[in-house]
Design brief:
The protein is an alpha/beta fold. It folds into 4 domains: 2-89, Ubiquitin-like (UB roll) (Roll), CATH 3.10.20; 122-203, Alpha-Beta Plaits; 213-272, Phosphorylase Kinase, domain 1 (2-Layer Sandwich); 283-441, no CATH class. 22% of the residues lie in helices and 20% in strands. The chain contains 12 helices and 20 strands. The strands form 6 sheets. Strands 2-1-5-3-4 form a 5-stranded mixed β-sheet, covered by helices on one side. Strands 15-14-16-17-18 form a 5-stranded parallel β-sheet, sandwiched between helices. A hairpin with a 2-residue loop joins β1 and β2 (8-11). It is elongated. The structure holds iron/sulfur cluster (2 copies) and FE2/S2 (inorganic) cluster. The site of one iron/sulfur cluster has 13 residues, from α6.
C-alpha cells in the first residue's frame, strides 16, 4: 500500500507499524522506548506525529499503517509537543554532556539539539539520584541521566528472562535499579548499554577511553563462535602508534543476532589488539623445507572461504595433506546465540571438502616430517611452520605473522549455513595478509 509522510509517497505493507516504516525508510522519527527488537511500550511519547483526520497527535510506535494514511512529522504543533516532552525529560537531568561517555551517540542530546534549546522553567532544586552505580557484568548506571524508557528492563525480563532490572520508586523519584545483592549477571548483560538511548548505562570496558566521533567503523562478523553475529568494529589510529580497536558493537541482522551480542563475543575485540612481536622468518627457509616428502598442514576453521581456498591451492600444489579440526567447547553454547562450535567457518571448511577426520589427522601428524599450522589453535611439540595472527606461538618454529580478521574482508558460512561477507578496516595491516604471503611462496 501507499502512504504519504511529509508529502513524500512511501510504499509499505499492511500490518506494519508506522514507526518501522519510517525507520526502514530512513525518515527521522525521535523515539526512546520503542526498539525494533524489543517492541513498543508507549511510555516516552517522543514518536508523536500528526495524522490527517485525527484530532490529537498519535504515537507512531502504536499506529498501524493503512491505505492513503497522511502523516506529518515536522509541523509546528508536533515540534511543540516534542519540546514539552524533552523539557520534562530534562527537568532533573544533570546536563553533564561534556563529561558523559554517551555524548555523540545520545538520543537525548540529539533530540535536544533538534527540538529543545529552551531555558528551563524549573524554579525548585533538581531531584538527585544515584551516580556511578556498579550493576555488575561490566555495566555502570547513572540514574540521573535515565529517561525511564524501560528498554533495559524489557531486555532482562523479555529476552534473557533473568529479571535483574526494574523501576524502583514513583513520580520524580522513579529510577532504574537492581535488588540488593542481585547484580546484573547474565552472559548477554552488556546489550543493555547499547539499548540505552542515553548515557545512563555505560560499559565499564569502554567508558572514558575514546570519544565516539574519533572512531571509524568496519562492518564485520564476530569470530567467537559459529553463530556469526554481525558487528561493527570501532577503531582508530592511536597517535604515533598504530590502529587500535576499541569495541565491537552489534550490527542489526534480523536473521541472525537481531541487535544483540553475547558479552564474550563483544569483549573478544581485545585479542585483535594483541600483536605478534617475535622474529619473523624468511620465506626462503620455508621454500627449502617444502622439499621433504611427508608434509601435513592444519588450517583454522575460523579463516574465511577465500583464505581457506588459497591454503587449499597452496597445499595441493606442494602435495601437502590438508586437515582442519573444529573448535568444540561443550560448555559454551546455550539455547540462544552462543554455539558449542567456537570457530567462525567450520561450514566453509566442509564446503571445500577439507579433511576433518581427527584420527586421520593424528596418523598423518605422527609420521610427518614437516607440519604447517595455518593459525589453528591446536598443535605443539613438532618442528612447525606457524602462520599466526596471534602472539601465542613457539619461537623455535618458523613463524610468519599474518593479519587478523579486522584487516581482512571475506566470506563466512555460519552454523545455519547463512553465507555472509565481512569488510576490512581501512588501515593497512602492519603484517601481510595470508593470501599475499602464500602468493610469495608459490
Ligand atoms: S537506564 Fe537507559 S535503557 Fe534503562 S530505562 Fe533508563 S534510559 Fe532506558
Ligand atoms: S554468540 Fe558467538 S558470534 Fe555471537 S557475539 Fe557471541 S561469540 Fe560472537
Ligand atoms: S517510542 Fe513511541 S512512545 Fe516511546
Amino acid at each position: 500500500m501507499k502512504i504519504m509522510i511529509d508529502e513524500t509517497q512511501i510504499e509499505c505493507k499492511e500490518g506494519e507499524l508506522l514507526i518501522d516504516v519510517m525507520l526502514n525508510n530512513n525518515i527521522s522519527i525521535p523515539h526512546f522506548c520503542y526498539h525494533q527488537d524489543l517492541g513498543a511500550d508507549g511510555n516516552c511519547r517522543m514518536c508523536m506525529v500528526e495524522i490527517k483526520g485525527e484530532k490529537r497527535p498519535q504515537v507512531a510506535c502504536d499506529t498501524l499503517v493503512k491505505e492513503n494514511l497522511e502523516v506529518f512529522t515536522k509541523s509546528k504543533n508536533i515540534n511543540n509537543v516534542k519540546r514539552s516532552i524533552l523539557e520534562l525529560e530534562l527537568l532533573s537531568h544533570p546536563v553533564d554532556c561534556p563529561i558523559c561517555d554517551q555524548a555523540g551517540e545520545c538520543k537525548l542530546q540529539d533530540y535536544y539539539m533538534d527540538y529543545g534549546l529552551y531555558e528551563s522553567h524549573l524554579t525548585t532544586p533538581k531531584t538527585h539520584k544515584g551516580k556511578h552505580i556498579d550493576l555488575g557484568s561490566h555495566v555502570m548506571l547513572d540514574q540521573e541521566r535515565c529517561v525511564l524508557c524501560t528498554r533495559c528492563i524489557r531486555f532482562t525480563s523479555n529476552i534473557t528472562k533473568t529479571h535483574e532490572l526494574g523501576i524502583i520508586g514513583r513520580g520524580d523519584n522513579a529510577k532504574v535499579g537492581i535488588a540488593p545483592n542481585k547484580p546484573l549477571s547474565n552472559p548477554y548483560a552488556m546489550n543493555v548499554v547499547e539499548l540505552c538511548p542515553v548515557g545512563a548505562l555505560t560499559s565499564k570496558d569502554f567508558r572514558f577511553k575514546q570519544r565516539v566521533w574519533f572512531l571509524d567503523s568496519a562492518k564485520s562478523i564476530c569470530h567467537g563462535c559459529s553463530r556469526g553475529c554481525n558487528i561493527f568494529i570501532d577503531y582508530n589510529e592511536t597517535k604515533y602508534t598504530t590502529e587500535k580497536i576499541h569495541r565491537f558493537r552489534s550490527r542489526r541482522n534480523n536473521e541472525i543476532n537481531q541487535s544483540f551480542l553475547c558479552d564474550y563475543g563483544r569483549l573478544s575485540y581485545k585479542e585483535l589488539n594483541e600483536k605478534y612481536e617475535g622474529k619473523i622468518s624468511d620465506v626462503q627457509d620455508l621454500k627449502k623445507l617444502l622439499k621433504v616428502e611427508k608434509k601435513v598442514a592444519l588450517v583454522s576453521p575460523s579463516l574465511s572461504l577465500e583464505q581457506l581456498k588459497s591454503v587449499q591451492n597452496f597445499t595441493q600444489k606442494h602435495k601437502i595433506a590438508l586437515f582442519s579440526l573444529p573448535y568444540l567447547d561443550e560448555n559454551f553454547g546455550d539455547d540462544w546465540l552462543k554455539t558449542n562450535e567456537r570457530s567462525a567457518n567450520f561450514k566453509g571448511v566442509q564446503e571445500l571438502f577439507i579433511n576433518t577426520l581427527q584420527k586421520e589427522f593424528e596418523e598423518a601428524f605422527k609420521n610427518a616430517e614437516l607440519i604447517i599450522n595455518f593459525d589453528h589453535q591446536l598443535l605443539k611439540n613438532k618442528p612447525l611452520v606457524q602462520f599466526t595472527s596471534t602472539q601465542n606461538v613457539n619461537q623455535e618454529n618458523l613463524v610468519f605473522a599474518i593479519a587478523n580478521f579486522a584487516h581482512e574482508s571475506g566470506t563466512l558460512i555460519n552454523c545455519d549455513e547463512i553465507r555472509q561477507r565481512f569488510e576490512a578496516s581501512k588501515y593497512k595491516s602492519q603484517v601481510p595478509r595470508l593470501v599475499e604471503l602464500l602468493e610469495q611462496l608459490s
